[in-house]
Amino acid sequence: MKWYYVVFLIFFIVLSCITIYNAVMPQNYNGNGISFDYPGTWIKLNQNQLNNTNESMQSDLVAVGDPNNVHNANIIVIVQKTEKIGTLDEIVTASKDELAKDWGAVMHSDNIIKVDGRDAHDIIYTTDSRSNKKERMVIFDKNNMVYCIIMGGSISAFDDQKDNFDLIVNSFKVTE
Description:
CATH topology: Protein Transport Mog1p, Chain A
Oligomer: single chain
Largest sheet: 7 strands, antiparallel
Distance between the termini: 58 Å
Shape: elongated
Helix content: 25-40%
Mean pLDDT: 84
CATH class: Alpha Beta
Strand order of the largest sheet: 3-4-5-9-8-7-6
């Protein structure tokens, strides 16, 4: 066997291992007072990639998503932080009312889970037929701030992302 075949074979094996490692091992976001893991094949999104997916950027800390589906906001996760005004239940009720009014959202579930040791509302809803989205919104408060993790995409892609969304929620920590 010629030496360049061996070099090519070694290069191919190393490149394959790196690709598999990146696909399997999660990345970690740590900034803006929060930390969480997200899938290794996803990317941190910039403002240009979010222009058509979120109208209110003031409270956004970070957004991550599947780079193959960002162009149509098919799989995207946005983390928001706002100052706590009122009780958590009042904030959740107001959020649901706003979603129903502005997006025609239909609520499917609202369960209590733990995020970073705090009770959090885990809400799943679909939006009207124009946007045809299914989303999971996890809301909790800590240190007099409200954190909202919005995970969603097209109805057809949403259910396949359960493990990825759970990775984000289960690893989420407030660091400040």
